[in-house]
């Protein structure tokens, strides 16, 4: 059996399968044009294409001394993937945030918490638009930070590390809860901002209390977003529960909301719309 040829980036090189050699100059020009059109940085391109940022920089400046053809082939695949994505219907390639009643309610709680500096909890079924709304709110305001909790990382230490990582802080691995809290509060204090903690149902009680302590010390608004079970957990923690100035629980999409979401995705014909509204009633 013949050995599989090695490539510089750990993936089979398409050039060896086709026998064609990519035109590095043409690919260089096409990549530069794509970066300008998309407003994409070379670092972001490197992550998407699976090469190092240094390699991208050297290739685009025509100073690459390594496997130029191999890098060109990988960037050609990136260009092809980009073209395939662009060919998809627009509604499938963007995050849709329809003006539903749930979206308006979540937005209202975030706005109050942001400007009045308290805490709020949004505990709803998955799929109702909590995260989309949080992203949109963060994108529309200064000093709003969105941190997403991970399943299995709900301790106080992991909660603070996750929040700090999403806020751009760099950890060295030896920080305890006290030091993590100190650095986070130093970043947030006095900025009259809002910290949105999404997927908060993954936090254990000690993780939720660590987030509360950020609110208490930094005097920053904190919004806890999560699935329905988050409400019961918060009510079981007396100090945290007492901080909740605003709550949103049990909200549902009605038929009008379903129609708005369907329209945002380009679904307006009666048969599929009736089916979606029926699914919403069953849900």
Your description of this structure?
- The chain has 283 residues and is an alpha/beta fold.
- It has 2 domains: 14-87, lambda repressor-like DNA-binding domains (434 Repressor (Amino-terminal Domain)); 101-252, P-loop containing nucleotide triphosphate hydrolases (Rossmann fold).
- It has 14 helices and 5 strands.
- It has helices at 14-18, 24-38, 42-49, 53-60, 68-87, 101-116, 130-140, 156-166, 177-188, 205-218, 230-235, 238-243, 255-264, 270-282; strands spanning 119-123, 144-148, 194-198, 221-226, 244-249.
- Strand 3, helix 10 and strand 4 form a beta-alpha-beta unit.
- Mean pLDDT is 81; it is low at 1-18 and 279-283.
Into how many domains do the coordinates divide? 2
Q: How many strands?
A: 5
**Count of DSSP H/I helices:** 14
Low-confidence stretches: 1-18, 279-283
Secondary-structure element string: HHHHHHEHEHHEHEHHEHH
Question: Key features?
Answer:
283 residues; 2 domains; five-stranded parallel beta sheet; 14 helices; 5 strands; disordered N terminus
What can be said about this structure in brief?
The chain has 283 residues and is α/β, with parallel strands linked by helices. The chain has helices at 14-18, 24-38, 42-49, 53-60, 68-87, 101-116, 130-140, 156-166, 177-188, 205-218, 230-235, 238-243, 255-264, 270-282, and strands spanning 119-123, 144-148, 194-198, 221-226, 244-249.
Write the layout of secondary structure elements.
Elements: H1 14-18, H2 24-38, H3 42-49, H4 53-60, H5 68-87, H6 101-116, E1 119-123, H7 130-140, E2 144-148, H8 156-166, H9 177-188, E3 194-198, H10 205-218, E4 221-226, H11 230-235, H12 238-243, E5 244-249, H13 255-264, H14 270-282
Parallel strand pairs: 1-4, 1-5, 2-3, 3-4
């Amino acid at each position: 059996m013949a050995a599989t040829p090695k490539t510089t980036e750990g993936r089979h090189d398409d050039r060896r399968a086709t026998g064609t050699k990519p035109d590095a100059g043409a690919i260089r020009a096409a990549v530069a044009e794509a970066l300008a059109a998309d407003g994409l940085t070379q670092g972001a391109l490197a992550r998407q294409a699976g090469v190092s940022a240094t390699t991208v920089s050297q290739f685009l400046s025509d100073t690459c001394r390594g496997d130029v053809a191999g890098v060109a082939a990988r960037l050609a695949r990136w260009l092809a993937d980009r073209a395939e994505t662009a060919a998809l219907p627009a509604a499938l390639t963007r995050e849709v945030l329809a003006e539903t009643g749930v979206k308006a309610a979540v937005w209202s709680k975030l706005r109050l918490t942001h400007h009045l500096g308290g805490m709020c909890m949004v505990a709803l079924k998955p799929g109702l638009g909590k995260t989309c709304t949080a992203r949109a709110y963060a994108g529309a305001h200064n000093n709003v930070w969105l941190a997403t909790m991970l399943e299995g990382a709900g301790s106080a230490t992991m909660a603070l590390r996750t929040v700090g990582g999403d806020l751009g802080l760099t950890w060295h691995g030896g920080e305890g809860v006290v030091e993590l809290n100190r650095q986070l509060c130093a970043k947030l204090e006095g900025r009259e901002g809002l910290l949105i903690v999404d997927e908060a149902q993954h936090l254990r009680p000690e993780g939720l209390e660590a987030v509360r302590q950020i609110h208490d010390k930094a005097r920053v608004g904190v919004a806890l977003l999560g699935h329905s079970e988050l409400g019961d957990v918060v009510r079981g923690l007396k100090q945290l529960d007492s901080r909740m100035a605003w709550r949103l629980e049990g909200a549902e999409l009605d038929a009008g909301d379903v129609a708005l979401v369907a329209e945002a995705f380009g679904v307006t014909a009666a048969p599929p719309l009736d089916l979606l509204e029926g699914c919403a009633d069953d849900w």
